[in-house]
Amino acid sequence: MNTRPLLEVEDLRVSFPGTTGEVEAVRGIGFSLGREKLGLVGESGSGKTMTGRAILGLVPPPGRVTARRLAFEGRDILGLDAAGLRRLRGARIAMVLQDPKYALNPVMTVGRQIAEAHRAHGRASGREAERKALELLSAVRLRDPERVARAYPHQLSGGMGQRVMIAMMLAPEPALLIADEPTSALDVTVRTQVLAILDELVTARGMGLLFISHDLNLVASFCDRVMVMYAGRILETCRADALSQAQHPYTRGLLASLPRLDRPAETLPVLARDPRWLDDARADA
C-alpha cells in the first residue's frame, strides 16, 4: 500500500527583492499533506497565501521560490516547465481564492466558466461539459442550478459566488484543494453552509485540503491538523482538536486574545511578541 503523502514540502522559501536586499516572505518551512484537512493559520502577512501560491507556481515575478523538496504525488513541482505546471494546476491541484468577485470572469456566465474548467482538463464535448456544470452546481447545494448557470457573477450573492468557485475548482476532480480564506467575506450562517459543503466533497472524493485562514476557532472545529505560521515560519503543528493545548507562546497568545462568551472580559489581552520567534523553527511536520 502506498502511504506517500500527496504533498511534500521541505525548506520552502519565497523571497522578493527589496531596497536593502532580498526579503523573505516564507522562510524555510516544511510539512507534508495527505488525504486530510490541514489548516494553516496566522496573522495577515505571515506568509499563508504566499505558501499556497508557491505550491502552484503562482508567485509573480520578481518573486523567487526555492525548496529542498516541493513534490506532489512524488513529482518535483519546481522542476516542471510552464506546460507541466498548466497540466498540474486545476487537473491535480486546485485553488479556491478568497473573493469570487475578483476570481470569476465578469463577462462570462457561471455555467460557461465551470464547463470551460471541465473541458480544459478533459476531452468532454460541449454538451457533456454543460451537464457536468449543472451537476457541480447541484453538488454545492445551489437551488435551481439551471438559473444559476445562466447568471453572471455580479448577479450572485457572496455565498453563491463562493460555492460557484468551489464547483469550478472541483470540475477537473483534483486530488488536492487549496482554499485561501474561502469564508472570510461570508456571514456566519452562509459560512457554516460552505464549510459543510467543503467537508462533504473532500471526504467523499478522498481529497487533501490545505485550508488557509486566520480564524483559530474555525480551523480547530473544521480541520484535522493545524499549522501556526508567524513571520514566514511555521512555529507549531498540532492536532486541531488539541489546539487549545498548544504550547508555543505565539499560539497561546492568539488563543488568549479571542473573545469568549463564557468568560467575558472588559479588555482583551494584547499579544506580547518575542523577537526570538523570528528564528523559531520548531515545525514538527
Structural description of this entry:
The chain has helices at 48-55, 82-88, 100-103, 110-120, 126-139, 145-150, 158-170, 188-205, 216-222, 249-256; strands at 7-18, 21-33, 37-41, 64-66, 69-72, 75-76, 93-96, 176-180, 208-213, 225-230, 233-239. It has 285 residues and is an alpha/beta fold. It folds into two domains: 1-92 and 174-285, 3-Layer(aba) Sandwich (Rossmann fold), CATH 3.40.50; 98-171, no CATH class. The strands form two sheets. A six-stranded mixed beta sheet has the order 7-8-9-3-10-11, with helices on both faces. Strands 1, 2, 4, 5 and 6 form a five-stranded antiparallel beta sheet that branches.
Helical run tally: 10
The CATH homologous superfamily of the largest domain is named P-loop containing nucleotide triphosphate hydrolases
CATH class category of the largest domain: Alpha Beta
CATH architecture of the largest domain: 3-Layer(aba) Sandwich
User: How many discrete domains?
Assistant: 2
Assign an overall shape: globular
Structural class: alpha/beta
Uncertain segments are 281-285
DSSP strand (E) fraction?
15-25%
Largest sheet, spatial ordering of strands: 7-8-9-3-10-11
The SSE string, one letter per element, is EEEHEEEHEHHHHHEHEHEEH
Work out the helicity level.
25-40%
